[in-house]
Amino acid sequence: MIKPDNPRHRLCVAPMLDWTNRHCRYFHRLISEHAFLYTEMVTTGALIHGDPHRFLQFHPAENPVAFQLGGSNPRELALCAKMIEDYGYNEVNLNVGCPSDRVQNGRFGACLMAEPELVAECVAAMRQAVSIPVTVKSRIGIDERDSYQELVHFVATVADAGCQTFIIHARKAWLSGLSPKQNRDIPPLRYDMVYQIKQDFPALEIILNGGITTLDQAEAVLRHVDGVMIGREAYHNPYLLADVDRRFYGEPKEPRSRAMIMELLIPYIQQQLELNDGVRLNSISRHILGLFHGEPGARGWRRHLSENVCKPGADINVILEALKF
Predict the structure, then answer these.
(1) Catalytic amino acids?
(2) Is 16 annotated as a binding residue?
(3) Is the pLDDT of residue 157 over 60?
(4) Which domains does the chain have, with CATH numbers?
(5) Which residues of 142-164 are buried (b: 16+ CB within 10 A; e: fewer)?
(6) How far is it, in rounded angstroms, from Cα 144 to Cα 108?
(7) Residue 133 labeled ligand binder
(8) Average pLDDT of 193-202?
(9) Is pLDDT at 22 greater than 70 in this prediction?
(10) Residue 82 annotated as lining a ligand binding site
(11) What is the dihedral of CA 158, 160, 164, 168, to 10 degrees?
(12) Per the annotation, does 169 bind a ligand?
């Protein structure tokens, strides 16, 4: 077990676009009481010019949870950070890691690694607007700008603006030629660069993201940095999170069984379906497909949900029937 000296970010679930929405986070919180959760990325434009409540609403049971913002205008980021704080989030995180063309065209995400002074200005503006922590999630570099010296310059510049926590995806991003999916797999992992950042900036909280698929791996990484972030594995195999509280936060309680998790989730699903605000069964059930990963009956569970949740009139009974497999 890892001693929880500074447990806030000991183990995090990554912000994942279209995946880590409020229903997913509520489900994950039933599995782990302490893992630090992140929203999917939302742009400043969506909050300022769209329906902010749609993006900001969340269940208090999700806490601790951070909101990830995409943007590069300091004034707009500060305005959105204040909204986020007012809604009760524990942290606002600036996305400096997403490599998609759409994000680049909006001048945010990984392309901002080429402008550390602008990122520092954004962080300073947000810190002035809120009292909750402002953190940054980045890559180790972009395109040909991937030297350790350039990463040091980025971290030092942004830290001088008051950022104390850096979540670093230990791959560089190719801003042209690779899709976002390819950018999650093809550039090689460079854990050594993230470990060296922690050695060179011991006062900063450094969280490593990228390639973590088991809690044993996470424990090994934690010998070098302050926290780890798990992405796709936590989504596709969510019960991986069941032992997080014991192994990383010193929680003495036994983890909940899959059956107990579903027993707690069913009233939430029923409540969401009855709110009449457009929530459909498949918008929640898609997040729980992997709950029985590796267990007898897992295939039947996934098949029954996949085949029935989108049918007209689909209700909680679809979930109850799937649980019989």
Answers:
(1) 98
(2) yes
(3) yes
(4) 11-249 (3.20.20.70), 258-322 (1.20.120)
(5) bbeebeeebbeebbebbbebebe
(6) 18
(7) no
(8) 98
(9) yes
(10) no
(11) 30
(12) yes
Is 50 labelled as part of a ligand binding site? no
**Residue 127's pLDDT band (cuts 50, 70, 90):** very high
Q: Which residue has the tokens 């069984």?
A: 257
Three-state secondary structure string covering the chain:
CCCCCCCCCCEEECCCCCCCCHHHHHHHHHHCCCCEEECCCEEHHHHHHCCHHHHHCCCHHHCCEEEEEECCCHHHHHHHHHHHHHHCCCEEEEEECCCCHHHHHCCCHHHHHHCHHHHHHHHHHHHHHCCCCEEEEEECCECCECCHHHHHHHHHHHHHCCCCEEEEECCCECCCCCCHHHHCCCCCCCHHHHHHHHHHCCCCEEEEECCCCCHHHHHHHCCCCCEEEECHHHHHCHHHHHHHHHHHHCCCCCCCCHHHHHHHHHHHHHHHHHCCCCCCHHHHHHHHCCCCCCCCCHHHHHHHHHHHCCCCCCCHHHHHHHCCC
Amino acid at position 13, single letter:
V
The Cα 34–Cα 30 span in angstroms is: 10
